[in-house]
Design brief:
The structure holds two protein chains of two kinds.
Chain A lengths: L3 H24 L9 E7 L3 E3 L2 E3 L3 E8 L3 H31 L7 H16 L4 H60 L8 H17 L2 E5 L5 E5 L4 E4 L2 E2 L2 E5 L7 E5 L15 H36 L14 E2 L4 E4 L9 E7 L6 E6 L3 E6 L5 E6 L5 E3 L2 E5 L10 E7 L2 E6 L9 E5 L15 E12 L8 E2 L3 E2 L11 E7 L2 E6 L4 E8 L5 E2 L8 E6 L10 E12 L4 E7 L1 H11 L1 E7 L7 E5 L9 E2 L13 E5 L8 E2 L3 E2 L11 E7 L2 E6 L4 E8 L3 E5 L8 E2 L3 E2 L11 E5 L4 E6 L12 E2 L5 E3 H4 L5 E6 L7 E6 L4 E4 L2 E6 L6 E5 L8 E2 L3 E2 L11 E7 L2 E6 L5 E8 L10 E2 L7 E6 L7 E6 L3 E6 L8 H8 L12 H41 L3 H37 L1
Antiparallel strand pairs in A: 1-4, 2-3, 5-6, 6-7, 7-8, 9-10, 11-34, 12-33, 13-32, 14-15, 14-19, 15-16, 17-18, 18-21, 19-20, 22-30, 22-33, 23-29, 24-29, 25-26, 25-30, 26-27, 28-29, 30-31, 35-61, 36-51, 37-51, 38-39, 38-61, 39-40, 41-49, 42-48, 43-48, 44-45, 44-49, 45-46, 47-48, 50-51, 52-60, 53-59, ...
Helix pairs in contact in A: 1-11, 2-4, 2-5, 2-6, 2-10, 3-4, 3-9, 4-5, 4-6, 6-10
Chain B lengths: L4 H28 L10 H55 L6 H22 L20 E4 L2 E4 L7 E5 L2 E4 L4 H6 L8 E5 L8 E2 L3 E2 L2 H8 L3 E8 L4 E9 L2 E2 L5 E5 L5 E4 L2 E6 L14 E6 L5 H13 L5 H61 L3 H26 L9
Antiparallel strand pairs in B: 1-2, 3-4, 5-14, 6-13, 7-13, 8-9, 8-14, 9-10, 9-11, 12-13
Helix pairs in contact in B: 1-8, 2-3, 2-7, 3-6, 6-7
The chains are: A alpha+beta, B alpha+beta.
């Protein structure tokens, strides 16, 4: 008999459970991440009766929660995304506010600074204007430093946030592990999960995903394992892995994240890409660092360009300008895992395009090339039969040059091209051809806004520049990576054509000597030296004693902004060649760098930190140009000299008094009046130049013409040399149309001098063509219109028609009837051509020569004078060095004097001391405002605008992504809510349902009771 | 789809906050007048605005520079004009003095006045501008440009000239150095100077001369002076040409015993002069000992002219020879004064054209400025009509979402159960 009571009671229990669950749901309507629970009711096992199965009531089978795993996974992912972009948005807005927009930020300070500069150019004598300029400069540097400080604070706060976030992540991990343990203990079957614990764990997981993107994997016992997106575990079962915030490998000031107990160098930064932690890393790497680099670039650019121009000017006291600004330098960081036993330390500096060199020659030790900024001998003991390229410059001798023992040349690149000048005046500077790599004026225009990573990746080899033979050495292969001497510098030096020694320079040890050489054979034949092998192969010219090959550490360089590899396993010289293109020069101390050592080069990160004014005294603002020019009032010609500008202010002779004196209408000499030196003689004016036509396809070059006859009638005509074939050429005078060469042309031999003067004496010059021309190539020799004259570091232009002449006149007290003709110049290169010479007759047939410019010193005495007619010509020829002859006719008597003197126009260049009204240097400084000279051809404000625009573009990207992530998150939240969320209305209905059912069940009990009572009544009798 | 209670509230509140923030944004735009409030709003245009801003500011600076340039040039022009007026007065006095009726005393008085004028001219030449800098001193602005040394006026400045930037690639000179204004004034016809000696008794005249072979002239003529000496023995008139170097005669004449024909060109050393006499009266022909000099033009200073004039006028002139000398000297002085005035006119003309150039550049700058400002407003300024419309839209939307939320959240089943 089925027990109605029991059935009813079961029902009662079940419905009470239902109501309890409903009550639980209602109570937790506002609990975050609560999943609504439901009682699963199932009918109990029926009893078998004779007439069939009788049901026995209801059972609560389980309490389940409405939950979808996939939706939760989506939710976690989008939560990470939204957190990430919210944080990024916040940080980007902060940065944007710091840098300012169109009206605030650095812009007003830049404007005020340049405005004060313009005002200074307008009123160069005003001390107030100078003071205002310095004040505005101070404001600008302070502002840039302030912004830099604020950026650093932002950086610090990110570091703090990372540390805090890591602590919170660890807390959550711990919480999840504990829940895992509780779940493992509490769970007894799949159908009776500890729902509230699970909800709590879900909440922890969502909170964790706000901080960093995670992946969740379920285990059999109900535990959830949590991994970072790269698979590193945070929680496994009941165990956790802690994250720690540590100093980054390169920069002790930067915090990064690692798993506790992992080795240095295994930073997790690149694997954490979402959540708040991901936001911090992304912001720092892609927005903050470039912004600080941009600011640094701006500061370095301002400092470089202003300092350079300022140092070309003259201040109120007549001194050359000093540096206006001080600025931070590029830095190179060593990684913490680098070898620290005699560590290799790099230092970086901006590449100096104004590097000057001295080339000297001695019979004993050939040529030596010294870099003047640091006195380092860049190359020594080399011959210049072939051009030498080293340190970014090329040196070669021009054809026909004769360099003798003791000659020294100063080689310097200038804004107008590289020049070579001779120190001791024995040779023209044109004996040496010097080419510097063409780099723009301002060093910082080359600085890519990127960091560079240098990895010591192996071993590299090189043949030294001064090798006489041209054998090559292969890239060494590494036989033993663990050899501790792998990257030592080793020299393979040939003692003769077939024998070499191997010397380890780092340890100072000879590894092998007297080794026999075979071209192409592995060195050493068996085993290795220091862990590497290499092979030397003959070239076209055999190895000679002294040829050396060097093996040293090899570096790989990667530019981080675009991940471009710039160099793969090159040595220090190759490293510098590559870095020079980027605008940097690296020097190495200590070392050698061991295999695996890493370095980070930050060219502009520190630029703005130390940006400050170096000048405080308004008198020292260099507004004027250091030189001024004058045309002598008594000049007879119509030559006009320009005001002059400075091209190299480092020359000590810059402000010496220099006189340009014309010896004829088309030649002049240049004298340095302060040092009493002849700077140049017989310079042709306007100069004759030779150039190859731009369309030439051959490889021939032409030298500048040498003047043989200064008075040649057609000296200044335009001459064209046309190649009819690779071996025949013709010469045409374009000005007159004449052809100088015979019909069919003249045969061409590379390097031979072509003497125009010999072809036709009206042409007066010779030149040389060498190389391989092809038919159709043309070369032109002509008088230029560009008449820039440059000595001592300045440059002037003379336009118009100056007059130069040498004249002779009789003395005032002559008693004889001697007459003197016009003197004839025989040597325009004579040193004393411009001296005044007195011819004093001691008798009718003898005369003395006195140099009146030289205080009347006697040049030569007792010269014989033969009157014209008969054997003599009456010609007076002074000794060599005076360069003229003159005829004296008729009858000079004893005591008669004749004067020969230079009558040419003179122009002076001298110091502008006292010229305080001059604003030329200020005008040049003003030009800096609008000259594009920084990255991508921008001027200063352009770079700043670009920086702000980039931050703005990032901000926009972040805003847009945030919006879309928020929309996605909303979707997943909606999905979750619709599955797991509590609906009060639904619960209200459930409550009613269970209540009614409870009442009904209670009624059943009542009925059962009354049935029993009825039965009892019936039986009592 | 099932909506949970939590979601109803979520769903209701979010639009309200969204609309509020959009409303806030429109409000900011309206009150600031700018469409682009931060670079993230429009990165490209944000950068363009910065560039435009820079151009506008540069333009304004050029405007300031032009004002300064104008004031300096005005100061210079005043000085030059006053100098011109002064020379005009001197000219009048010179003409006045060239009256045979005057005696030594009269001329003395005129000399005194000219002396005064010369001092005045010195003052004008030493003008200072508003900053206290000497206008005509070149770069040596704190040095007095013209001082008297050994009775002569010397120039102590240099030949520097200051330029100002008045346009993106336009510079204008704002001064001239004193040497070019007052000191270096070419005489004669710029190349040659010919003169008849005042003591000549004949009436022959020499023309200005001309260069017929420039090369020959350049090579051989320059550096010496030449004296044409006439010999007249009553029947034959011949002349010698003597070369003079540094004041010393060359004992051998360049040309000797040349026969003289009136009006016939005399050529030597690349140049040509013509000596002629009027009529056929033997008294008018060149007399024995008459001389003419020919030389290359030398530069001349205005002060020297005035000083020479004063000296000339102070020399007593009693005899007819002395009178003739006086007349000759006064005629030369007049010539020199004219030349000086011509030079001053040239300088004034240059100043005038510079000031014109400044005006033109100012116009260009201002037009450019207008364009820039228009562009700035096109890119960055808010369109008020559009903004007001958006404001209304957002207000409406906000009200609607607030009201709908109020309605929905009030509904609950619990309200209806008992």
């Amino acid at each position: 008999m089925v027990d109605i009571l029991n059935t009813a009671i079961r029902g009662l229990m079940a419905f009470r459970a239902g109501m309890a669950t409903t009550g639980h749901n209602v109570a937790n309507v506002n609990t975050p991440y609560f999943s609504r629970q439901r009682v699963e009711l199932g009918a109990t096992t029926p009893e078998k009766q004779s007439y069939g199965y009788m049901g026995t009531g209801v059972n609560v089978e389980s309490v389940t929660r409405a939950y979808d795993d996939f939706v939760m996974k989506q939710l976690r992912g989008h939560t990470s995304g939204v957190s990430q972009y919210e944080e990024l948005n916040d940080l980007t807005n902060q940065l944007s506010a710091l840098l300012g927009d169109t009206d605030v930020g650095l812009t007003p300070d830049l404007e005020a600074f340049f405005g004060s500069l313009q005002d200074l150019a307008d009123s160069p004598t005003s001390i107030t204007a100078r003071q205002v300029f310095l004040d505005e400069g101070e404001t600008l540097t302070n502002r840039i430093q302030d912004i830099d400080d604020a950026l650093n604070s932002l950086r610090d706060s990110i570091d703090t946030s990372i540390t805090n976030t890591v602590a919170t992540i660890n807390d959550y991990s711990q919480g999840i592990a504990e829940v895992n343990r509780a779940v493992a203990q509490a769970a007894d079957s799949d159908t009776n999960p500890p729902n509230d614990l699970l909800d709590r764990r879900d909440k922890l997981l969502v909170d964790l995903s706000k901080l960093a993107g995670i992946q969740v994997v379920a285990e059999e016992n109900g535990a959830l394992n949590v991994f970072l997106s790269n698979g590193q575990p945070l929680v496994v079962g009941i165990n956790t892995q802690k994250l720690v915030a540590v100093q980054s490998g390169f920069d002790p000031g930067e915090v990064t994240v690692r798993l506790e107990g992992q080795a240095e160098g295994s930073d997790l930064e690149r694997y954490i890409t979402s959540g708040e932690l991901g936001a911090y890393f992304e912001f720092r790497r892609t927005i903050l660092n470039p912004a600080q680099d941009g600011l640094g670039l701006l500061a370095m650019g301002l400092a470089e360009t202003f300092n350079e121009q300022h140092q070309q000017g003259m201040d109120l006291d007549g001194n050359l300008g000093e540096a206006l600004f001080n600025v931070g330098a590029p830095r190179v960081l060593s990684h913490t895992t680098n070898n620290d036993d005699n560590p290799a330390i790099f230092s970086a500096a901006l590449n100096n395009t104004k590097e000057r060199y001295e080339l000297s020659f001695s019979a004993a030790s050939n040529y030596t090339l010294t870099r003047l900024s640091d006195g380092v001998i860049v190359a020594s003991n080399f011959t210049l039969t072939n051009p030498l390229t080293v340190d970014g410059v090329t040196v070669e001798l021009s054809s026909g040059a004769t360099v003798t023992d003791g000659d020294r040349f100063l080689l310097q690149p200038t804004a107008h091209g590289a020049t070579a000048t001779s120190y001791n005046g024995n040779n023209a500077g044109s004996d040496v051809v010097f080419q510097a790599k063409a780099l723009p004026v301002a060093d910082s225009s080359n600085l890519a806004r990127s960091d560079y990573e240098i990895l010591t990746s192996g071993v590299a080899s090189r043949a030294t520049l001064t090798n006489a033979g041209n054998a090559t050495i292969s890239t060494p292969t590494i036989a033993d990576l663990d050899d501790e001497n792998l990257t030592n510098t080793v020299r393979i030096r040939f003692t003769n054509a077939t024998t070499y020694d191997v010397i380890d320079d780092t340890r100072g040890v000879t590894l092998a000597s007297g080794q026999a050489y075979t071209s192409g054979a592995t060195i050493p034949a068996t085993g290795d030296y220091n862990g590497w092998n290499a092979a030397i192969t003959d070239g076209t010219s055999p190895i000679q004693a002294g040829d050396t090959f060097i093996i040293s550490a090899g570096y790989t360089v990667k530019r981080l902004s675009d991940s471009q590899e710039l160099l793969s396993s090159g040595d220090l010289t190759a490293l510098n060649d590559v870095m020079r293109d980027e605008g940097l020069h690296l020097a190495l101390r200590g070392g050698p760098a061991q295999y695996g050592d890493r370095f980070l080069v930050q060219p502009t990160r520190l630029g703005s930190a130390n940006f400050e004014m170096a000048l405080a005294d308004p008198r020292k603002v260099a507004v004027a140009a250091p030189i001024t020019t004058t045309a002598t009032a008594t000049n007879l010609g119509s030559g006009v000299i320009s005001a002059g500008n400075v091209i190299d202010s480092s020359r000590m002779e810059l402000q010496n008094r220099v006189e340009i004196r014309f010896t004829s209408d088309h030649t002049f000499n240049v004298f340095d009046l302060d040092t009493d030196a002849i700077l140049d003689k017989g310079v042709v004016f306007p100069p004759l130049v030779a150039q190859a036509d731009a369309d030439n396809s051959g490889t021939a070059g032409i030298t500048a013409p040498a003047i043989v006859d200064y008075e040649a009638e057609r000296l200044r005509n335009t001459i064209e040399i046309r190649f009819l074939s690779a071996t025949q050429y013709e010469i045409v005078d374009v000005t007159t149309g004449d052809t100088l060469t015979p019909a069919g042309g003249s045969p061409y031999t590379s390097g031979n001098a072509i003497d125009l003067n010999a072809l036709d004496s009206r042409y007066g010059s010779t030149f040389q063509i060498s190389g391989a021309p092809v038919a159709g190539d043309r070369f032109e020799i002509k008088s230029t219109t560009s008449n820039a004259i440059s000595y001592n570091g300045w440059e002037v232009n003379i336009t118009g028609e100056p007059h130069g002449d040498i004249i002779a006149s009789p003395g005032s007290e002559n008693t004889g009837t001697g007459t003197i003709e016009k003197p004839l110049i025989t040597d325009y290169q004579a040193d004393n051509l411009t001296h005044t010479v007195k011819i004093r007759f001691t008798s009718a047939t003898a005369y003395d020569l006195l140099d009146m410019t030289d205080n009347g010193v006697t040049i030569s005495a007792g010269n014989i004078y033969t009157p014209p007619g008969g054997a003599g010509l009456g010609t007076v020829t002074p000794p060599a060095g005076y360069g003229w002859t003159v005829d004296i006719n008729n009858d000079p008597q004893a005591g008669d004097e004749f004067i020969v003197q230079n009558d040419g126009d003179t122009f002076q260049i001298k110091s502008n001391q006292g010229g305080i009204g001059d604003n030329r240097n200020a005008l040049e400084l003003v030009k800096l405002e609008t000259t594009p000279q920084l990255l991508d051809g921008n001027d200063f404000r352009g770079v700043y605008a670009q920086m702000i625009a980039e931050v703005g573009a990032q901000g926009r990207r972040v805003e847009n992504t945030l919006q879309s992530q928020e929309a996605l998150l909303q979707q997943s939240e909606l999905s979750r809510e619709s599955i797991s969320g509590v609906s009060l209305d639904e619960e209200a209905a459930n409550l009613v349902r269970f209540q009614q059912a409870y009442q009904a069940a209670a009624q059943v009990i009542q009925t059962s009771n009354s049935m029993f009572t009825s039965l009892l009544e019936a039986v009592k009798g | 789809m099932r909506i949970s209670t939590h979601w109803i509230y979520q769903r209701g509140v979010k639009p309200i906050t969204d609309h509020l923030s959009k409303l806030g944004r429109v409000q900011e735009e309206i009150s600031s007048g700018q469409k682009i409030l931060k670079p993230a709003d429009d990165p490209n245009n944000s950068a363009r605005l910065m560039e435009l801003h820079k151009q506008v500011q540069l333009n304004e600076q050029y405007g300031r520079n032009i004002i300064i340039a104008n004031s300096r040039l005005a100061a210079e022009e005043t000085a030059v004009r006053e100098s011109g007026n002064l020379l005009q007065r001197v000219r009048e006095l010179t003409i006045q003095a060239n009256n045979a009726a005057l005696n030594d005393e009269n001329r003395e008085i005129i000399a005194t006045e000219i002396g005064e004028l010369r001092s005045q001219l010195l003052d004008i030449a030493n003008t200072r501008d508003g900053d206290g800098a000497y206008v005509f001193a070149g770069f040596l602005e704190q040095t007095i440009p013209f001082t008297v040394s050994d009775g002569e006026v010397v120039y102590n400045g240099d030949q520097g000239q200051r330029w100002l930037q008045v346009g993106p690639s336009r510079q204008v000179a704002v001064g001239d150095h004193g040497e070019g204004v007052f000191m270096n004034i070419r005489k004669g016809n710029e190349q040659l100077l010919t003169k008849a000696n005042v003591r000549n008794t004949g009436n022959a005249e020499i023309n200005d001369g001309s260069i017929i072979d420039p090369t020959e002239f350049q090579n051989n003529f320059l550096g010496h002076e030449y004296r044409i000496e006439f010999n007249n023995d009553g029947s034959n008139i011949t002349f010698d040409i003597i070369e003079v170097t540094n004041g010393v005669d060359n004992p051998t004449p360049l040309l000797s015993n040349q026969s003289y024909v009136s009006g016939q060109p005399i050529n030597f050393r690349g140049m040509q002069v013509v000596i002629s006499h009027p009529g056929t009266d033997p008294e008018d022909m060149p007399q024995d000992g008459d001389e003419f000099t020919v030389k290359a033009a030398q530069d001349l200073s205005i002060f020297q002219v005035l000083d020479n004039l004063v000296t000339t006028l102070e020399t007593p002139s009693q005899t007819s020879v002395e009178d003739a000398i006086m007349t000759e000297a006064l005629a030369n002085a007049l010539n020199d004064i004219d030349q000086s005035m011509r030079n001053l006119n040239l300088v004034q003309g240059r100043i005038g054209s510079r000031m014109n150039a400044l005006d033109a550049q100012d116009d260009v700058n201002q037009n450019f400025n207008l364009q820039l400002k228009t562009l700035q407003s096109d890119i960055g300024a808010v369109d008020y009509a559009d903004a007001a419309t958006r404001l209304n839209e957002e207000l409406l939307a906000l009200q609607a979402s607030q009201q709908s939320f109020a309605k929905i959240q009030g509904l609950s089943l619990f309200d209806y159960l008992r």
